[in-house]
């Protein structure tokens, strides 16, 4: 099998399929779509490629069994966790049967944000996946929704797929959704045009990406954010439709969907690549000009230089660092958002007095920082 010209030389592929791809509106598994996905993956493996599948659908499947047990208002997370615990074994059982029909084997790996932000667990998960791929077993990844809560959720499976792509050193991230790809405006509007290719660094701020599917947590905005996590790492990305005849193979071998070119020159070391791909969604700190200059010169971020923070994040999370509203770096924080809000604009020797403890004199250490602007990591 020969991949499309833009993917020449690519071998390892992460495929992400959303809830609306593998389930019907009533929540039941869409066996026809799942069968096509499995057939395509098996054909890729037989042709010498390695495939990791990130599959949503567990919550959608499980919800059908909780209609008489809908929780009261404010308990949406509890419903999602309960639904996931029911739907996940049903979903993986379907996948397992379909793979066995093709004399192949799949495995299940459930992950949370903790498994990516904890370096030891990250490396253990990576090792597990490497062994599976060497044995031509397809790892099926999903967020462990049954135990996830705000502190440890990845966000959605678009972001999980981005983190997984970095974890396994993938060449390509393929995101399958209900849309043909990225359009210049809402695809339901008259005159909307499919954008066939996006070069690295192209601005997409004028494109409306607010629409979401009925069953998924993400939307096109989430998918673009996931793409923007992997393209700086040299990983190509494609967003394509679930309605292609060959759901996985068509966008890889033909000009289907929207292809995103990666950064060709930025090749950060493994730890810094991990920091970029595990960045927590919509979380960060705003710094002043002095802190910006210090960080660009290779120094750590101290509380004195922080003017504000946003989002719910915790010690060990990877977050954006912004100056004048523009992200220019990503780093692992030593403190959670509530504590940073208390120590911002203070000297390091005041941290213990304010908080009653001190993890570090810095909020983000230079060894746990990756710069995104020109001159980075030199």
Keywords:
378 residues; alpha/beta; 5-stranded mixed sheet; 13 helices; 34% helix; 20% strand; globular
Please write out the topology:
Elements: E1 12-17, H1 19-22, H2 31-46, E2 50-55, H3 58-63, H4 76-101, E3 106-111, H5 113-117, H6 119-134, E4 138-143, H7 157-167, E5 172-177, E6 182-183, E7 194-195, E8 197-198, H8 220-230, E9 236-241, H9 249-253, E10 258-260, H10 270-277, E11 279-287, H11 289-296, E12 306-310, E13 318-323, E14 326-332, H12 337-343, H13 351-355, E15 369-371
Parallel strand pairs: 1-2, 1-5, 2-4, 3-4, 5-9, 8-10, 11-13
Antiparallel strand pairs: 6-7, 9-10, 11-12, 13-14, 14-15
Short description:
The protein has helices spanning 19-22, 31-46, 58-63, 76-101, 113-117, 119-134, 157-167, 220-230, 249-253, 270-277, 289-296, 337-343, 351-355, and strands spanning 12-17, 50-55, 106-111, 138-143, 172-177, 182-183, 194-195, 197-198, 236-241, 258-260, 279-287, 306-310, 318-323, 326-332, 369-371.
Distance between the termini: 40 Å
Strand order in the largest sheet: 3-4-2-1-5-9-10-8
Runs in which pLDDT lies below 50 for 5 or more consecutive residues are: 149-154, 212-217
Compute the average pLDDT. 88
Helix fraction, binned, reads: 25-40%
The SSE order reads EHHEHHEHHEHEEEEHEHEHEHEEEHHE
Number of DSSP strand runs: 15
The assigned structural class equals alpha/beta
Shape: globular
The value of Rg in angstroms is 21 Å
Number of helices: 13
Description:
With 378 residues, the protein is of the alpha/beta class. It is 34% helix and 20% strand. The chain is built from 13 helices and 15 strands. The strands form three sheets. An eight-stranded mixed β-sheet has the order 3-4-2-1-5-9-10-8, with helices on both faces. The protein has a five-stranded mixed β-sheet with strand order 12-11-13-14-15. Strands 6-7 form a two-stranded antiparallel ribbon.
């Amino acid at each position: 099998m020969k991949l499309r010209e833009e993917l020449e030389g690519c071998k390892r592929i992460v495929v992400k399929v959303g809830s609306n791809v593998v389930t019907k509106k009533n929540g039941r598994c869409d066996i026809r779509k799942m069968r096509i996905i499995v057939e395509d993956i098996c054909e890729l493996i037989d042709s010498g490629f390695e495939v990791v599948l990130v599959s949503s659908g567990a919550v959608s499947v499980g919800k059908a069994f909780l209609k008489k047990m809908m929780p009261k208002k404010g308990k949406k997370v509890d419903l999602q966790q309960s639904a996931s615990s029911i739907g996940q074994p049903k979903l993986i059982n379907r996948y397992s049967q379909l793979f066995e029909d093709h004399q192949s084997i799949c495995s299940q790996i459930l992950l949370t944000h903790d498994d990516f932000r904890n370096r030891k667990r990250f490396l253990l998960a990576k090792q597990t996946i490497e062994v599976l791929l060497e044995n031509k077993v397809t790892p099926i990844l999903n967020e462990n929704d049954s135990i996830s809560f705000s502190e440890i959720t990845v966000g959605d499976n678009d972001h999980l797929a981005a983190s997984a792509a970095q974890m396994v050193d993938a060449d390509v991230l393929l995101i399958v959704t209900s849309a043909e790809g990225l359009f210049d405006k809402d695809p339901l509007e008259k005159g909307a045009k499919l954008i066939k290719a996006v070069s690295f660094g192209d601005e997409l701020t004028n494109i409306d990406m607010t629409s979401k599917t009925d069953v998924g947590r993400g939307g096109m905005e989430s998918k673009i954010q996931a793409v923007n996590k992997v393209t700086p790492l040299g990983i190509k990305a494609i967003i394509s439709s679930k309605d292609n005849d060959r759901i996985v193979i068509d966008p890889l071998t033909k000009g289907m969907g929207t292809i995103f070119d990666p950064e060709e020159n930025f090749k950060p070391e493994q730890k810094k690549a991990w920091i970029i791909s595990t960045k927590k969604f919509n979380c960060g700190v705003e710094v002043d000009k002095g802190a910006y200059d210090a960080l660009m010169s290779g120094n750590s971020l101290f509380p004195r230089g922080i003017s504000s923070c946003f989002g719910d994040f915790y010690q060990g999370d990877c977050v954006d660092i912004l100056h004048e509203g523009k992200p220019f770096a990503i780093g692992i924080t030593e403190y959670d958002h509530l504590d940073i809000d208390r120590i911002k604009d203070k000297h390091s020797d005041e941290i213990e007095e304010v908080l009653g403890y001190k993890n570090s004199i810095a909020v983000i250490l230079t060894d746990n920082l990756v710069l995104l602007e020109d001159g980075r990591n030199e």
